[in-house]
Amino acid sequence: MEWVERLNEAMNYIEEHLTEEPDYEQLGRIACCSPYHFQRMFTYMAGVPLSEYIRRRKMSLAAVDLQGGDAKIIDIAGKYGYSSPTAFNRAFQAVHGIAPSAVKNEGVSVKSFPPLSFKVIVKGVEELTYRVETKEAFRIVGVSAPLHTGIEENFAVVPKMWQDAVVNGTFQKLAGMMDTPPMGVLGVSACNEEEQWKYFIAVSSSKEREEFEEYMVPASTWAIFPGEGTNQSIQELERRIVTEWLPGSGYEYANAPDIEVYLNPDPANAKYEVWIPVVKKQA
């Protein structure tokens, strides 16, 4: 089954389970990738975080349930997984700009967010340079923080980690421990033995240092994309990889870490590589 078809199967699953808590693990299984990778792909392709898309769909249906009917707000709140009318009211107003009680009146405008589906659009105006390399397992040491289920929260957590690492001297200490490839300061999104996704700021090293955590990056194949610029440019490169390269590449996501390799220490004009774990698409 094609990659885009699996994404659309995941969208169908969301529609069929809008009255339940989102099951990110199941969505990852349908799309044949990790829950973390699925959410990253969705955010880049849809332009909105997955949790926000699900909230908009729930509130679209909730508005229909409330229009011209006798349904109680507390019952509609419970139907869509909100434990209190206050939480439901906050979510509803964030989407529609009005309170749920106002929708019961005729002539009140609400917003509708239809179900999303994906299709491949060939762009290719600007080339993407990449290489594919298979690497043996390698050890990294550094600092880590858990990645949130709602991936949009990570867009705040990860930049703060980097800022703190520079200010408190962690960045400089790690750079001094680097002694095995890949030679650069690494940003690694990885899953540990407890199936928890974490983000590491680390280096590949054979050295020991008590205050740092270690992690073994498993042997895998990566598609490696070079780039340069600011933090915004690396996010744009990642978006292009997911939306332009991956759908027609003949590869799909493998169950291994995403890696950012920063080849020089200048955050304002960084040279970097984005490593995407891949496997050949099954015929």
Detailed description of the structure:
There is one protein chain. The chain is α+β, with helices and mostly antiparallel strands and 283 residues long. Helices cover 38% and strands 22% of the residues. It has 9 helices and 9 strands. It has helices at residues 3-16, 24-31, 35-46, 50-66, 73-79, 85-96, 154-167, 170-177, 231-245, and strands spanning 131-135, 138-146, 185-191, 197-204, 213-217, 220-229, 251-253, 258-262, 270-280. Strands 1, 2, 3, 4, 5, 6, 7, 8 and 9 form a 9-stranded antiparallel β-sheet that branches. Helix 4 (50-66) crosses helix 6 (85-96) and helix 5 (73-79) crosses helix 6. The radius of gyration is 22 Å and the shape is elongated. The N and C termini lie close together (8 Å). The mean pLDDT is 87.
Uncertain residue ranges: none
Question: What's the shape?
Answer: elongated
Helix content: 25-40%
The major pleated sheet works out as:
9 strands, antiparallel
Distance from first to last alpha carbon:
8 Å
Q: How many distinct helices?
A: 9
Q: Give the H and E element order.
A: HHHHHHEEHHEEEEHEEE
Estimate the strand proportion: 15-25%
Which structural class best describes the helix and strand composition?
alpha+beta
How confident is the prediction overall: mean pLDDT?
87
Give the helices and strands, then pairings.
Elements: H1 3-16, H2 24-31, H3 35-46, H4 50-66, H5 73-79, H6 85-96, E1 131-135, E2 138-146, H7 154-167, H8 170-177, E3 185-191, E4 197-204, E5 213-217, E6 220-229, H9 231-245, E7 251-253, E8 258-262, E9 270-280
Antiparallel strand pairs: 1-6, 2-4, 2-5, 3-4, 3-8, 6-9, 7-9, 8-9
